[in-house]
Amino acid sequence: xxxxxxLDTNVIINYVNFDEKFYKKITKKCYEYILQKHGKFxxxxxxxxELYEIMKKRSRIHRAVLKMxxxxxxxxxDFLPSKEIPIAKKLYIQFKDExxxxxxxxxxxxxxxxxxxxxxxxxxxxxxxxxxxxxxxINLVNRIHDIIPNHADCKILASALQLQINRGLFLFVTxxxxxxxxxxxxxxxxxxxxxxxxxxxKFPELLNLIFTN
Length: 213
Hints:
The chain is of the alpha/beta class. The protein has a single domain (about 5-210), classed as 5'-nuclease (Rossmann fold). It is built from 8 helices and 5 strands; from the N terminus they run βααβαααβααβαβ. Helix 3 (about 45-70) crosses helix 4 and helix 6 crosses helix 7 (about 150-165). The longest helix is centred in the N-terminal third of the chain and has 26 residues, at about 45-70. The two termini are about 20 Å apart. The mean pLDDT is about 95.
């Protein structure tokens, strides 16, 4: 029986970043999974929101790098979140000798292509968009957060659990090796069974593409 797929953000990012000439193994796996679509593709609004946040993040980092190159100063990063500073510095080292105007156009084109691919994916590949942000169970998010440190991941997984209540078993499709590896997912399920037995939470079936052949 074909199961529907509830897609995590990283699967979509890998899909849109696939390049036939240069790619990582996981990028190709995600691309092929989307291309060989079976069943419905489901996206929660938390994932849609995260995709747009990634677009904003790219723009922030590009602006910072251009400013650093313009001022020949690798430490102009006051307006960047701390997690983004190492990425900006790495790009600065890579592009510091480039012509500023040329680099600005290249960054702009890169963002446009990325954004077009995301919008096209959302328009043509998704069958259902589910669980508005204001309907995410914050109590459930906090319970997941006891085990998984990334709060955005917790919102996405909480959305999947909320949807799974009234559905036949679907796949939670991810490419997250850090927080959603198979052993970690089983541990999370056992944690819920032990600590919240009366809630009878129903978890979707994990499909982590990093751990598939």
